[in-house]
Structures are given as structure tokens and as C-alpha cells.
Amino acid sequence: MTAVAARNAAEISQRGRLRHVGIRQCTEGIIEWSLWGLTMLSVLTTVAIIAVLVWESTGFFTMAGHDDVTVWSFLTGTTWSPLLGAEPAFGILPLVTGTLLVTAIAGAFAIPVGLLTAVYLSEYASPSTRGWLKSALEILAGVPTVVYGFFALTFITPYLLQPLSESFGTYNAMGAGIAVGIMILPIVCSLSEDSLRAVPQSLRDGAYALGSTKFDVTAKVVVPAGLSGVIAAFLLALTRAIGETMIVALAAGGLAQLTANPSQQVQTMTAYMVQIFLGDAPANGIEYRSSYAVAMTLFALTFAMTWAGAIVLKRYREEYE
Known about the structure:
MetI-like fold, globular, 2 domains, single chain, mainly alpha
């Protein structure tokens, strides 16, 4: 009886192990397929967005009664007035230059300030100072963009810019650009600091052993070693600035003009789309459809910057063991 009982117990244990293995394999299969499905969902969402933009943009260029609107005239035209007069003009260059002007101003403010702040937090600040400064930057990142727009209208322009020059009106590219720069400052600072802190301590110790000062170590060792991450932070912040909507819609103005003067008001691509979808144009009219062509141009611009960022990361990435 003892041998039979032992054999039965072994069989039961074997069946239990097989059942456990089967359940585990089934669970792993469900997890794998779930992850695959979620991955494909993100891919299909991207494909759907591109398909909608291409379809609607094609409808804009082939719309009956507007055969003069071609891809070439759209991309090279210098007049954008889809809602004015009997002969609307659809040259996107004023919107592109307005977008790039605001982005350039934002980058000129946020990139040096953010990088220097990141260097201070990474190399000079004490742990307690780094803690409360990081907290302040996180609060800054959580401010709604519409608040930055009102800040540009009620403080930056009247109290900082207009006392410098009478050429600054209520709406101008400089005020909007500075506000966008403040908005992207936490992105530049946080990502750059993470990249600098990821540099191995052995590189710093080696430079100190050669008699280098703290500034020499920071400028000639740490920053070059973390350059790929710093450049990635710059490109991500600039891409975010290009796609910003509420700040430019409130503070940059609504006049689409081909200018490089930061004291003039400009209209960006995102601000034009806001204007259209507020009801200023009839649904399914050519003005309405033009917003999709503008969105497609904006998508192509941000995609090009993202692709360039990937190339830069691949070219300058540093790997440490």
C-alpha cells in the first residue's frame, strides 16, 4: 500500500505540475498577444492620422472651382488670406515663417538658459538645492499653456518689450516666443541634466587627477560626453515649440505676413487651425479643408525634425561600460 500510495502521489504531483505549466504558458501567451495588440494599436493610430491628413489634403488640392491651388503654389506662395476677399490666396510661406520665427525666439531663450541650468544642477548644486530647484521646474512644466499666453499678453509685452521699443504692439512674435521658451525650458533643463548626470564619474575623476578645474571638467569632459542627450533635448523642445497652439493663438496675433521682424504680429500654422475650427469658415469649404493641408505641412516639419534628431543621436551617441 505504501508503494501504491507513493505512486499515486507522484502521479498527482506530475499532473499538478503539467497543469501549472499549461496555465503559465497560456498566461504568457495572453500577455504576449496583449502587448502585441497594444503595439499595433499605436502603429495603426499613427497610420490613421497620416491617412486622414493625406486624404483631406488631397481633397483641398482637387476641390472643384479652385484649380489654381496646386501643391507648388501652396508651398511657395507668399500670401495667405483664405478668408479675405473674393480671391483667396493659399501660399503657406507666411504661416511657416511665423512658426519658425516664434520657434527660433523660443529656442534662443530656452536652449542656453536650460543648458546652463542643467549644468548647475548636475555639477555645482548641492543635493538640497537640486531638490527644490527640480521641484520648481516641475511646477513650471505643469502650468497650462493658456496661462503662458495670458502672461505674454499682460506682462511680457507691456512691461518688458514695449518699454524697450515703441514698435512692439499688443500682439508680436517676440512676446509669444519668450512665453513659448519659458514653456519648453523644463524640457531642455530636465533632459539635459539627466544626460549630464549619466556621464560616468570615472571620467570626472580622471580629469581631476590630471589637475583640471571644476569648470574644465564640466566644459571639456562632462558636456561633450553627454552631447547626444543634450542635442536630443534641444530637438525635442524645439519640436514641442513648433506644435504649440494656445500661446501663439493668444499672443502672436492673427495676421499672416512674411516677416522676420519679431516686433510684428504673425500667425503660426497651429494658430490658423484654431481660427478655422472656431467657426470662421463654413464646414467642408476650401478654407476648412486648407487647415488639413496646413496640418500636413506641420506634421512633415515635425517629422523631419524628429528624423534629424534620430540621426544625430545615432551619430553622436556615447556608450559607457
